[in-house]
Amino acid sequence: MNLHRIAGLVLALLGLPVGAVEFRSVSEPSLLYDAPSSKADPKFIIARGTPVELVVNLGKWVKVRDSGGGLLWIERAKLAEHRTVIVTAASAAVLESAAESAPVVFEVAKDVVLELLEAAPVGWAKVRHRDGQSGFVRVSKVWGL
């Protein structure tokens, strides 16, 4: 048995994703718990639209990671297919096109959530701000892809 197959089996047994990372956004303000149960200790409320990485799936519960690396549990029903990203840099310029020389459409601060519109050329993401403005941002400035 080769090393890649062994690693895949170990990850599968641990309930971790094998392959692509999967992201979702939170559909409504929701409690995050320290265990997969509504009887577990609630740790905090996560805001609507916040992107999360799906780490472990257990029926109606999902262990998620936030942009800061925190791992907690959320009810699957509180997650949307709709994708968002969050700015992790101190600020990020959203440009008219996917080119460093493109005009700036708007600037966003750290922790601002943007709607992910589509995949763009390598290194870029097309996004929209809640006020309706859209453009391209460097993927190195956001988390949730």
UniProtKB/TrEMBL annotation:
Stored Pfam families: SH3_4 (PF06347)
Name of this chain's protein: SH3b domain-containing protein
Originating species: Candidatus Methylophosphatis roskildensis
